[in-house]
Amino acid sequence: MAIKISERFAEQCSVVHSNNYDTCGTITRANIAYLTPDLLESMYTAGGLWAELDAWFKTAIEMKACGVKTYAMYDWIMSSAVKGKGAMVGRTPISNTVSLLHPFIMGKQSSVINTDFWAISTGFVQSAYTADVTGPLASGDLATGVAGDRVVRIVSPYGVELDSKWFNPGTVIHIITREGGVVGDGAWKVLAAATAADNSYTDVLVTSQNAGSAAVYDTTPTAGLVLLGLNNVHDVEKWCYNLPNWDSTKMVPFWIQTFRRTRCVDSEYIKFYNRLRTSGANEAFRQFGDIDLAKRNAQDELEHKKRFVNHFFFSKPLNANQTQALYRSLPEITTPTGFSVDPGTGGKLMAVRAENIGVLEQLRRCGRVKDLLGHALNFYEFLDENYRIMRARESNGRQVTDIDWYTDSVTAANLQTAFMQYWKQESLEQLRLTMEFNKVTALGMKYMSFYAKHPVGVRINIIVDKFFDDFRSANKGLTTGSQEQAGVMLLCLDIGQGGSIYWAQIKSNRKSYTVGDLDNLAKIDKDWACVMEAVTKEVTLISDTGTVIVECPQESLWIWGMADAVPIMTGKTANEENLY
Fold this sequence. Notes:
22% helix; 580 residues; 7-stranded mixed sheet; 24 strands; globular; alpha+beta
């Protein structure tokens, strides 16, 4: 259960995340208050008694984060990126002071806020949504869409307070559903978002971006898993939205026992933050008041990596015009005409807007996506797919000694059982010679290796990564009964050095500006020459341009919608292509 910033002294397993500081805003809008004499008196003489505060504010141990983070998956993808193509683990002693009055010491603990996966609790058609009545979307928000658009109510399966900044306009979200025994994946662009007053949900107005895909998707989603993708904004367009940040620190008590072992940043924000942060008189703010910019940047970077991975796998065409024949009908991107100063360069056509097509969509178009429709995998048909993949890779002049399959740990265990049953059926004496367990890749992914009679001489590696465990767990955690099967994936993706799937980085761009700089203001307005100090904002803009490459779809295969069961070991069925 999540708790508020006012409840910093909390139960050990609670999740703390609350923060109303926006680095691009002014400090006067945050909840900092000057301490009055009465407040100071109550702080140090609680209940009329002088309080000993050292035990609260001087930390004896500092714990690492409790929770789960994903991101070897990003490193795996970027290891093959091509550029130029166009629990107390560790103690931090703070003070030797031990309280004389409290039989405990306080440990500072960070909660990991799981923002990788979101869920839909209900949905509405835009025309049936009443502004400020059905939910928090205002009439102006609804006006950004049309009657056929959808509003999805997004909640967190992990108790995270919702913030509309997770769903900034222009962001593409991917909705994974399971309806009628079929896994559906829909791409939707965010038009507007608003969060309920109690932060329990966010209503997001979205418009479909599925016209260019033949994939099954829920046209009226009222349930499902939500993944956050990237936006689609050209360098010449106006777009400047901060992501939400959080302070996840709390203090938990550890009872004493003796034993014989042992982004846009406002100058006023920086000024107030540094003053309160370094002031010896405000230990509480130093501990809990806000997170420093380095942590904000680290959070933003991790969030970008997560969204990049979602985009890399699930992105779809912008619309049906995203083809060689019709691309000129895609939306045009033009230079701005100026917002307060017009240099006369506006309205120039710079490009047309397109969307990266992700790995899933590219493989689907070539028949390399298999939805098992809730059936168990047929083991012998699975071995045949390994042979076909081997032949495809060999046809491109590669020597194939290994084929990697990426999955979650539960599916890996089922495959391990299947390989053992396979060799028991085929040749018991070979069992120990054909399996290797408990191995670890350079990126920290655990894997098991197996040989089979077919394909001959090719090692089949079953690699487990937290990305797949988390994806499966997030689907399982939803209320829809069969949604879990949407999260069971077994992917043979030719990613890595020399692989046929990779991210091609075409260019990157970075610009930094100081808004409100007195020297510049005085050049265009003489009144500013009479001012000695002004509030400024440091704005940094970063862009990357690139595309998702799947050079040879036949060298990879995407399997999902599988039953949680040991693969079928009784032989191939009549339709061998469906893998069940």
